[in-house]
Specification:
Layout: H1 2-20, H2 43-65
Length: 66
């Protein structure tokens, strides 16, 4: 259990460092383009997708359990 906690802590610290390294967007600004598609998202796109995560995966897990 302690190993799992240490691994999780390392992942969180790594993610935190990654977020801190991101450029701050101006209001309404777009993030960097995706290298594969060229698509760019603004804060509204990101927040919208984050809001969809829990309902989407809850429904998918329920479908799989059925």
């Amino acid at each position: 259990m302690a190993d799992q906690a240490a691994a999780l802590r390392a992942r969180v610290e790594s993610a935190s460092a990654g977020f801190e390294g991101l450029d701050v967007l101006a209001p309404g600004g777009l993030g960097p383009p995706d290298p594969a598609t060229g698509e760019q998202w603004g804060p509204g796109n990101v927040l919208g997708h984050m809001a969809e995560i829990l309902p989407f995966w809850t429904a998918e897990i329920r479908r799989a359990l059925d």
